[in-house]
Specification:
about 250 residues; mainly alpha; about 75% helix
């Protein structure tokens, strides 16, 4: 019965996220963290689902000419190889779960903080060195944890007035896709014993949910609504993991 609930939840998350142009990696990990799956399986599932869901929105952004490739490349030139390298590293379950909890809480704070800066205009403050550094660090963490990195990149772009909301969403979408592919390939390169049946089932679930979400004719969820819902979900899971860890050591 657990697998059916998992399929339903993943399909629902992908539907909501894709309707606003996001991938949902942090929410997939938050859901998986409540189960007792091996950490490498969690990472592989989240990365694959990210790839499937965000591919459609990335293609749509390309068709609408929302990419400024001359400004995007510094973010991905280091993030791609470092995400691959991060994907090849395995952490023990306790270290992974604690780090995941901290990152989920940080991501939730970033999601809420972004709302305050979305409508503010200002002079862009990010240079090439800034983009290389931010992209590289987020890329490594993304591969290591099984994330696309969009929840961390987006706040930086808004805080630095990098571009308008649509171009930031487009850049974040491509960043998520690039890191997810690199991290997933890094993970697969280690010939791990992954549950490919579960990968396939959940991949199909998010493919269906993502296609429905991206083609919804009814009123779509706004980017802000999705972020706030996701922030509540991942923060609650992050706090739950830390609470359980504290109970064990005290």
């Amino acid at each position: 019965m657990e697998i059916y609930w998992l399929i339903l939840l993943f399909g629902l998350v992908s539907l909501i996220y894709s309707s606003a142009g996001f991938g949902g990696g942090s929410s997939y990990l938050a859901i998986l963290a409540l189960l007792h799956l091996p950490t490498n399986s969690m990472r592989a599932i989240a990365l694959l689902c990210n790839i499937i869901v965000v591919s459609g929105s990335t293609i749509n952004y390309i068709k609408n000419n929302l990419f400024d490739w001359s400004r995007i490349w510094p973010f991905v030139i280091l993030s791609i190889p470092l995400s691959f390298f991060g994907g090849r590293i395995s952490l023990d379950r306790e270290s992974y779960m604690i780090l995941l909890a901290i990152l989920l809480i940080m991501a939730s704070v970033g999601m809420v903080t972004v709302k305050r800066y979305e409508d503010k205009q200002g002079r862009p403050t990010s240079g090439t060195l800034y983009s290389l550094s931010i992209g590289g660090v987020i890329g490594f963490v993304s591969g290591l944890m099984g994330l696309g990195g969009g929840v961390f990149l987006s706040p930086f772009l808004y805080l630095s007035h990098w571009a308008d909301a649509k171009k930031i969403a487009a850049t974040t979408s491509f960043f998520i896709l690039a890191n997810s592919i690199a991290g997933f390939l890094g993970l697969l390169s280690r010939n791990l014993n992954l549950d490919y049946r579960l990968l396939l089932i959940l991949g199909v679930a998010v493919l269906i949910g993502g296609q429905i979400g991206s083609r919804m004719s009814i009123k779509k969820w706004s980017a802000r609504q999705v972020r706030l819902m996701a922030a509540a979900l991942i923060a609650s899971v992050g706090l739950k993991i830390i609470y359980e860890w504290l109970i064990l050591i005290l």
